[in-house]
Amino acid sequence: MIRFENVSVTYDGADEPAVRAVDFEVPEGELALLVGPSGVGKSTVLGAVSGLVPHFTGGTLHGRVTVAGRDTRTHKPRELADVVGTVGQDPLSHFVTDTVEDELAYGMESLGLAPDVMRRRVEETLDLLGLADLRDRPVSALSGGQRQRVAIGSVLTPHPRVLVLDEPTSALDPAAAEEVLAVLQRLVHDLGTTVLMAEHRLERVVQYADRVVLLPGPGERPLLGAPAEVMAV
Ligand code: ADP
Ligand code: ADP
């Protein structure tokens, strides 16, 4: 579902590539972790999946990234929106509306869906994420874990086949983090969504993963022996 073939990204003005010769694959319906120390290129890899890199960041991408068979270099992020949902590190920067319900509806607005389909998808997503009681709440009045779930919900209503998340639990306490991870696991198991999630704390999330993609730092050896399949890239 996600395939990287010998992918290197060099940002404009940088001397060194941000990621170099990355090769991996995530099959449909798996939850994969993208692991590695800060600065190793996790956000860059996620951006290459959603098409933000290099379309919006500048720079050059060598090699090939395909998501559901679409080459992300030849499709603009907008042309990938029905395939890939992206949740960044800071949910607040995601939000464009006032209430939870409006936020979930917003992502579908450019898809040309009938109003009753949009309403049904909002209901279905509120239930899936355990947000039904919060539907009229201003997004600014939510806890960190609730915000993260709304951010996930807002990219789920278009029914993307792939979801990429950048350290979605990094600002959460353990209980809220577990709620978010349980939601992701439910998406994978119940709906067959493919999830790629960046995380620098492997131990917190590895039990939820089907696969681990490790981006080792310069000169480092690949980490081995994790409970999931570790692919050194
Ligand atoms: P991680 O997510 O693992 O912390 P990043 O992908 O954010 O790593 O960063 C990898 C490298 O690319 C870093 O050296 C970072 O400074 C650089 N970088 C990231 N984004 C940009 C950008 N938009 N422009 C220039 N350099 C960037
Ligand atoms: P519509 O496409 O008209 O919105 P439904 O809301 O009934 O139809 O959803 C169609 C199917 O999509 C249902 O079987 C439902 O389980 C499934 N579905 C629900 N949420 C998602 C999701 N986030 N991603 C993919 N499929 C989903």
Automatic annotation (TrEMBL):
Domain ABC transporter span(s) in chain numbering: 2-233
Domain of life according to the entry: Bacteria
Organism of this sequence: Streptomyces griseomycini
Compartments, record wording: Cell membrane
Family membership noted in the UniProt record: Belongs to the ABC transporter superfamily.
Role of this protein: Probably part of an ABC transporter complex. Responsible for energy coupling to the transport system.
Protein name, UniProt field: Energy-coupling factor transport system ATP-binding protein
